[in-house]
Amino acid sequence: MLTTVEVLAQNNFGDTRTGGLAGPMGLFLIVALGTVTVLLIRNMNGRLRRLPDRFPQQGTPGRADSAVADPTDGLVGQDSPTNAPNGSQQHRDS
């Protein structure tokens, strides 16, 4: 009777002429990865076709993007520029 350790310790990956599995296992992995890649590409193409040509405008046209907006806007506390320590007020560009 073989124990689990003996079964896992057996070398079945091709350095002997009988029972080598490296070739068939490699072929299986290549075919499986190719199949998964083709299915993924088909799925993403279907999703891209369903997207509209243009998206509705987000926000108001006069407002700057959030990436360029002031990150300190709306902060309240000691660390914000308007409530600087020592009672000094810093100038903020609007």
What report would you give on this structure?
By secondary structure, this protein is mostly helical. It has a domain at 23-52. It has two helices and no strands. The protein is elongated and about 75 Å long. The mean pLDDT is 74. Keywords: Membrane, Transmembrane, Transmembrane helix. Residues 79-94 have a biased composition (Polar residues).
Net shape? elongated
H/E element sequence: HH
Number of helices: 2
Overall pLDDT metric? 74
Give the C-alpha Rg.
31 Å
Q: How many strand segments?
A: 0
| Residues in helices, as a percent range | 25-40%
Task: Give the distance, in angstroms, between the N- and C-terminal Cα atoms.
Answer: 81 Å
- Report the β-strand fraction as a percent range: under 5%
SSE-based structural type: mainly alpha
Query: How does the major sheet shape up?
Result: none
Biased composition (Polar residues): 79-94
Region (Disordered): 50-94
Transmembrane segments: 20-41
Keywords: Membrane, Transmembrane, Transmembrane helix
Record the SSE blueprint:
Elements: H1 4-9, H2 22-50
Keywords: Membrane, Transmembrane, Transmembrane helix
Region (Disordered): 50-94
Biased composition (Polar residues): 79-94
